[in-house]
Amino acid sequence: MALVEIKNVHKNYGHLEVLKGVSLDIEKGEIVTIIGRSGSGKSTLLRCINALETIQAGEILLEGQAVSADMRDLRAMRQKVGIVFQAFNLFPHMTIERNVTLAPVLTGKVEKPAARALALSVLERVGLADKLRAYPEQLSGGQQQRVAIARCLAMSPHLMLFDEVTSALDPELVGEVLKVMEEMARQGMTMVLVTHEMNFARNVATKLVFMHQGRVWEQGDPKSLFANPQTPELKSFIGHHS
Ligand code: ADP
Ligand code: MG
Q: Which of 48, 100, 113, 123 is the most exposed place for a label (fewest CB within 10 A)?
């Protein structure tokens, strides 16, 4: 059984059909990158996976269990799926430690006395153990994004979703965030990323998904697809992004 099974998913916003029958399996430990033009449905697909959106038809299974906005165990499901967006959304009036431990403490995942150790361990994984007492505004964009990743890690997710997490960063800060994600990949985290970072898609990902007009247009081994796109649409996309 795949960790995530996406079966013939259709998603509309009113009359606009945004996902037109998307099917995709994500195995445990896989690093899946989703590429495609703006408006092709990449963000919508990610948001469907953790039920930030409802779907009109089809099915999404996480660890064999159907995901939906009205599922009984929505909160439990969300704790298994971390999502990081382009905007880091840290709480500006809270220290980095508190930002990272808020959810685990509130959900009872960790007792308050153990929270600092948890914060230290996840901040260490993103190279920011020395920023425990800092506030978000004292950090660079790249550091804030790494904190946002650490905040997800603090919930011990089974799956992490990243939606263009480096797109808003100054170019010189992109590398440090990619490095953190690469390290997570190496440690076996299952990850799905929407990204424009073609080097990451080619060299780190285990699967490449090209979306076009609400459909999975091509999917497969990244290196083969980059070397040998099967459709003119992917060929042209790669041409414009490398
Ligand atoms: P991508 O991430 O590939 O750029 P999106 O999934 O964000 O694409 O959007 C796919 C399509 O759905 C676009 O045409 C977009 O305008 C539309 N869309 C996205 N979110 C909404 C929304 N909340 N309401 C209406 N239309 C939306
Ligand atoms: Mg998007």
A: 113
Angle at CA of residue 61, ends 106 and 225, nearest 5°: 110
Mean pLDDT value of segment 57-86:
90
Taking the centre of ligand 1 as the mean of its atom positions, its distance from the CA of residue 81, in whole angstroms, is: 21
Q: Is the ipTM of this complex over 0.90?
A: yes
Supply the residue whose CA is at minimum distance from atom 15 of ligand 1.
39
Please say whether the dihedral angle defined by the alpha carbons of residues 102, 104, 108 and 114, taken in this order, is positive or negative.
Answer: negative
**Ligand nearest to the CA of residue 13, numbered in listed order:** 1
Domains of the chain: 4-240 (3.40.50.300)
Decide: pTM greater than 0.90: yes
Q: What are phi and psi of 184, to 5 degrees?
A: -60, -40
- Rounded mean pLDDT, 76-94: 93
Q: What's the pLDDT tens digit per position in 119-147?
A: 999 999 999 999 999 999 999 999 999 99
Enumerate residues 6+ apart whose C-beta is below 8 A from 91. 98, 99, 102, 136
Does ligand 1 come within 6 angstroms of the Cβ of 175?
A: no
